Transmembrane 9 superfamily member
Amino acid sequence: MAKTTTFSLPLFASLLLLFCFFDHVRSDHRYHDGDSVPLYANKVGPFQNPSETYRYFDLPFCSPDGVKEKKEALGEVLNGDRLVNAPYKLEFRKDKESKVACKSKLKKEEVARFRSAVNKDYYFQMYYDDLPVWGFIGKVDKEGKEPSEYKYYLYKHIHFEIFYNKDRVIEINVRTDPKALVDLTEDKEVEVKFLYTVTWKETKTPYEKRMDKYSQSSSLPHHLEIHWFSIINSCVTVLLLTGFLATILMRNVDEFSFFYDERYAHDEESAEDEEETGWKYIHGDVFRYPPYKSLFAAALGSGTQLFTLTVFIFLLALVGVFYPYNRGALFTALVVIYALTSGIAGYTAASFYCQLEGTNWVRNLLLTGCLFCGPLFLTFCFLNTVAIAYTATAALPFGTIVVIVLIWMLVTSPLLVLGGIAGKNSKAEFQAPCRTTKYPREIPSLPWYRGVIPQMAMAGFLPFSAIYIELYYIFASVWGHRIYTIYSILFIVFIILLIVTAFITVALTYFQLAAEDHEWWWRSFLCGGSTGIFIYAYCLYYYNARSDMSGFMQTSFFFGYMACICYGFFLMLGTVGFRAALLFVRHIYRSIKCE
C-alpha cells in the first residue's frame, strides 16, 4: 500500500503540473461595438537593460481608480510581467480624439524621477487584447547643447491606431505626439494632463495571422542569407571532420588483424623485450573505470536530462507553441519539462554508476539532483536579492518561490528517486570488449599540447565556430528586444552542433589513445563540454562590443544566468561527447582479439 502511495504522489503532481501548462483559458477575442477591450500596462525600464524593468506605476503616472493586477501564470511571473489595468479606455471600434485620461500635479521629487527615467531612455510596454505595444516615455533634447544645457521632456499625448477585421482586433500601433511635451528640466511642480487619441481602421488580415508582423523581422531575406551562410559554413566543418574520421577508421581497418590470439601467448620475458606503441597496446587499461565515478555518473545523468529538455523545447517551438509575445510560455515549458524529466537523470546516473560497480547509489542520486540545480539555486538567490534591492519586476514574489519549491519537492525529487531506483534495479553490466588488467599501465610523458586544457581549447573551438553566427541573434533576442522565430534553422544548427561535438571528441580521443594515454573518460567529457566555456567567453565579447547594457543589476543578471546556461551546455555537450567517444572506443576495441 505504501508503494502505491509513493508512486501516486509524483504522478498526481505531474498531472497537475501538466494541467497548469496546457490550461490556457483565453477568451475567443470577439467583441461587439463599444465593448471594453482589455488594455494592461506591464512595465517600464531602460531600453538598453532588458532585465532591469519596473512596474508601470513605479513612475508617477496618474493611475485609474482601483488599480487591479491581472492574475498571471507562472511563466509570466518568471518573465518579469506585472500587468495592471491601464489608465486608457479603448472600447472596440470607438474613435476618440484628445481624450483626457487623467490630470496630475507632479511634485519636485516626481519630476526628478521622470527626468531620470527619460535620461535613461525608459520605455513602456502594454498589452491590448494580448497584442504588445510599447513606446518611449519622453525624450532628451541634446542638439547643439552642452550636457548641462540638455532639455528633458515627457510625452503626454499617446495615439493608438488599431486595426480590426469584423469583430476581432488584428493590430495595434502606438506613437507619441512630438509636439505635446512637458518640460521636466527644472525641479519644480508641474501640472500634466495626459491625453490619448484612438483611431480604428479596418483590415483584411485574418485573425490567425495577426502575430505574423512580429516574426517578419527575423525572416527578412538578408537575415535568412546570414543564417543559411552559417549553416553552410557548419556543414563544411562537418564534412571535413567526417572525412577525417573516415580516414582514421579506414587506415586502421587492415591493422586490426595485427592483434591475434597468438600474440598474447608469448611469455612475459618476450613481452618485456618488445617495445609496444599505439592505441592497440593499452587494451588492458582503456576500460578501467574513471576516478570520481559517482560525480562522473551524476554529470552524465544531468547532461542527459538537459539534452532531453532541449529536444522537447525544440519540438514545442517547431509546432508553434512559442509564437512571439506568448507571455511566459518558454519559462513555463522549461520549469514543467525539467521537473518531468528528472526521472531520466536519476535513471541514467544510477544505472551507469552501478555499471561502474559503485555501491553508494543514494549519495550518487543526491549528487545528481544537486549538480545542476545547486549552482542554479545559489545564482537565483543572489540575483533575486539584487532584484529585490532594485524593486525590479525580476524579483519573484514569495508565492511564486513557494510554487517552485513545491514543484521541486512534489515532482522533481520523487521522479528523480523513482528513476534512480529503476536504474539501480536495471542490473545492466558495462559492456567492455577487452578485459581490464590488474595494474594500470604507465602513461608516457606527453607534450604540452596533449594536456587537458589545450585539448579542451581545440575541442571547443570547432563546435563554437559552427554556431557563433547564430549566437548573436539568440543573444539579441534573449538580452535585447529582437524577436527570434526561425526555430527550424536553429534546430538545424543544434543538430550540427551535436555532430561536430561528437566528431571532434572522437578524433581527440583517438589521438589520446594513440599516444598510449588510457585516461580518456573524463577527457572526452571535458572536451565535449568545452563549447560551453567558449559560449561564456562570447558573453564577455557580446556585453562589451555588441550591447549597451550597463549597471550592476543588468550586469549581474547577464553574467549570472549566462553562467548557468553555459554550465548546462557544458553538461549536455559533455554527455554527447562522452557517449560518442564510448561508442567509438568500443567499436575499435571490439574489432581486435584480446583475451
